[in-house]
Amino acid sequence: MPNAAYDLTLRPSIFYFPYPLLGSFMTTLADYLNQHASSPALNDVITTVTNVGKTISQLLRKGALADILGEAGNQNVQGEDQKKLDILANDLLLDALAKNTHCAGVASEELDDATPANDDGSLLVLFDPLDGSSNIDINMAVGTIFSVLPYERQGQTSENSDYLQAGNKQLAAGYLLYGTSTVLALTIADKVVMFSLDPETEDYVLIEDNVQIDADTSEYAINSSNYRYWRAPMQQYIDELIAGETGVRGRDFNTRWVAAMVGDVHRILCRGGLFTYPFDTKYAHKAGKLRLMYEANPMSLLIERAGGGATDAVNRILDIEPTDIHQRVPVVLGSKNEVNYVRDLHVNYSEQ
Ligand code: AHG
Ligand code: MN
Ligand code: MN
Questions:
Q1: Three-state SS string across 76-93, please?
Q2: Model confidence, pTM
């Protein structure tokens, strides 16, 4: 006899009391945006992005059956091999946002130049359509990261230079994590909130109304295979963590690495931690692997609003004045005391 509590074919019981863990009151994303979005325009573009997220989520659930896996056979502007899903997610977002009257233009990790949309729009939308591409074909977590900036030249056609605004100008930022469930993390005001996508009703339902990160942590995420390419203070930092209770830190640390920034940042919003993709000399002319406009800025806004820190090892990421829409930046983010510890190591090293 199956346990009725877990039998999803018993639909009437689900509809009678759909969110037992959340009590009888539930807030959908639509409710939340109506109450908290600073403008109808912001409400509208976030609704567009998150609706596309539902489609991407459905495609990922189908996996190989939707013919979405594997290589696309070309490279993006960053010289990276594109997967089919990189292009599909990019095109879905681009098409939907181009039709949104509030969107003046779109910039994507996968496109050489920003794409103008509606000249009278008041917002610019930037995204990494599919973060964690190397996870797609192995059925692991991937995500979509997005950022919204104000558009200052309404009535004129947007250009790449319109996007060159510091991250502290972002009006909203968030990500969709397509994991065992699909989760949306969002910041549109001073708080970070999380929603879970209900596959039955297709609603995003509020599950966290004020995400906060502990200042201390004993968990860190880094691709250690790049050790020999790092700068000395980063090598020293990781050496100290590995030494654990036998070293200067006096306690053991644990590594977790999802290989998709969206997954690592989600873990940090859930239980703290430090994530870094530091400066390395592996590839000439790249200051780091992650992209300022599509990855570092939106994630830094989420992390800071949740009480954490986000630097390029020394300087606050959100204060960096961009010079190129595709520029890369070293990233150190997460629990505040740990981010500050890394900064102090770098500052002290350069002063020696
Ligand atoms: P993308 O798939 O958008 O190119 O980004 C992947 C990024 C980031 O999500 C992750 O932290 C990092 O690349 C992992 O890279 P490596 O496995 O090459 O270190
Ligand atoms: Mn990415
Ligand atoms: Mn990507």
A1: CCCCCEEEHHHHHHHHHH
A2: 0.93
